[in-house]
Amino acid sequence: MKLHNHIKILEFALASLLRKKTRNLVIILAYILNVFIFSSALFYSESLKKESVELLQGSPELIVQRMKGGRHELIPLQYAEEIMKIRGTTEIVPRYWGYYYDPLVNSNYTFLGADQMGPEISAMVEGSFFNPGDSNSCVIGEGIAEARYIGVDDIIPVKGADGQLHVLRVAGIFNSESAILTNDLVVLSPGDIKRIFAIPDNMATDLVVNVLNPSEVSTVAGKILEKLPDTRPIEKSQIIKTYEALFSWRSGLVVAIFIGAIVAFSILAWDKATGLSGEERREIGILKAIGWETSDILALKFWEGFIISVVSFLSGMIAAHAHIFLFKGILFAPVMRGWSSLFPPLNLAPQVDFYQIIIVAFLTVIPYITATIVPSWKVAITDPDMVMRG
After folding, report:
1. Which of 16, 48, 86, 120 places its Cα 20 to 30 Å from the Cα of 157?
2. Overall average pLDDT of the 187-200 stretch
3. β-strand partners of 73
4. CATH classification of 89-211, choosing from 3.30.2010, 2.60.120, 2.40.40, 3.40.50?
């Protein structure tokens, strides 16, 4: 078919769509909604995956926890001596951390015991980082400071495991640039956190194991499990895979929440595939009677489906992009990130993943165009007189 003929058929397709503008507008809106849902879920989950992977690159290669009854327990420091006997380990650092529920703001804080932080972390503190050995001093995240309306040199009361009230002085506050890491974090000395959480001196929350050769982390983990069967070695790669699986599951949950809209669009496509209206059949019969070929009619219906699909697909993709990267995924954020009320502000970097675009197109564009062409082909190969008689 010549290019001139295609242009004329395209003009006729546009005129035909405008004649039924109300019906086509409803189809376009339903189409846009489905593209928006699929695209938003994919954009948000993929952005969170990439963000979490980048953040976790700085996490320890191997963490050892003690398990009891399927739950995480405190680990004896003597386990560090046994692990150091394994060839390939260079250093073992005990960590002290835990979660504290604050009933005043209905939120969980993460408490971390540390005498000092690296220079890159200390530079993120407004105020000062407490000196090693300081008692009852802490550095808190910006989210905690805003929730409790406190600042530097204010106090934050904490109820310990012994039921006593421990008063901590805020020496510094992490700035907004580190909010994704520190929004709900409270850093205090190991002595203070052990006293608040009643951690015995010979125990730690877990152990960070430094391995000389990163390629031997799995081997060292296996030897630790063999030597200390009540432990659970956790590799950084396992943590990254867990986060990726978590966000994939939550993106599926978002799609499930809007399953009604998806079903409605599926019914619409099925309705188009199972037959044409009487008016559409008569139109095809008239076109055949005045000399249109079957290929011309298929080209006409292709352009009609293509125009609706392109307009809807691009509009849905643009709306999803704006929703995720300009409005911070406001509709999906509680489901995708969790239900903690101390959400860190997320500034997700816009990224174009053509694989995601192909997935959305495959799930929306191709089924709709197919549902437009197939019933038209069935009518186009039928005798025009029979078609117009009904």
Report:
1. 120
2. 93
3. 66
4. 2.40.40
